[in-house]
């Protein structure tokens, strides 16, 4: 994994500022509720990944004319995609634009957690503690996977 570049810093700051202003209406989601949202979430995450990767390419081509205008347009697009995802209750976490990681607030065994979905997964099947991050991912217990 490469070191975070300016695209990471800009996007992260932009999203953190936006996220503190707007919280989703729903505090906790069930696994079923997240899975019902996944068809739309997958399309949004694909747009985020494509836009983020395009921004990364521009970072490596600083001498291209009109780069600043293109970066502003892509940044605005990225902001809109992330807002759309947050409106569904999810929070984008993959600032390297590699796997499309999204967390949804949930509850497992009476404990507040983040239901953690990767862009290459068919459904949400993992969670982690509020402060554990991706490295703390665990399988969701079977009783929480049933409808």
Question: What do these coordinates show?
Answer:
This protein has 147 residues and is an alpha+beta fold. The chain contains 4 helices and 5 strands. The protein has one domain. The chain has helices at residues 6-21, 31-59, 67-87, 142-145; strands at residues 91-92, 102-108, 111-117, 126-129, 138-139. Strands 1-2-3-4-5 form a 5-stranded antiparallel β-sheet. The radius of gyration is 16 Å and the shape is elongated. Mean pLDDT is 84; it is low at 17-24.
What is the subunit organization of this protein? single chain
Number of strands: 5
Instruction: List low-confidence stretches.
Output: 17-24
- Separate helix tally: 4
Gyration radius (Cα, Å) is: 16 Å
Strands, helices and their partners?
Layout: H1 6-21, H2 31-59, H3 67-87, E1 91-92, E2 102-108, E3 111-117, E4 126-129, E5 138-139, H4 142-145
Helix pairs in contact: 1-3, 2-3
What descriptive keywords fit this protein?
147 residues, alpha+beta
Provide a concise account of the structure shown.
The protein has about 150 residues and is an alpha+beta fold. It has helices at about 5-20, 30-60, 65-85, 140-145; strands at about 90, 100-110, 110-115, 125-130, 140.
């Amino acid at each position: 994994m490469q070191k975070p570049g300016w695209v990471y810093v800009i996007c992260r700051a932009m999203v953190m500022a936006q996220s503190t202003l707007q919280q989703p209406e729903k505090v906790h989601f069930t696994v079923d509720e997240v899975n019902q949202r996944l068809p739309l979430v997958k399309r949004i995450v694909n747009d985020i990944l494509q836009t983020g990767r395009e921004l990364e390419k521009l970072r490596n081509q600083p001498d291209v004319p009109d780069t600043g205008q293109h970066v502003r347009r892509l940044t605005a697009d990225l902001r809109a995609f992330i807002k759309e995802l947050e409106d569904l209750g999810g929070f984008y976490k993959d600032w390297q634009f590699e796997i499309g990681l999204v967390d949804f607030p949930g509850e497992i065994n009476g404990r507040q957690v983040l239901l953690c979905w990767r862009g290459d997964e068919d459904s949400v099947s993992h969670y982690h503690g509020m402060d554990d991050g991706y490295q703390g991912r665990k399988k969701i217990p079977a009783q929480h996977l049933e409808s």
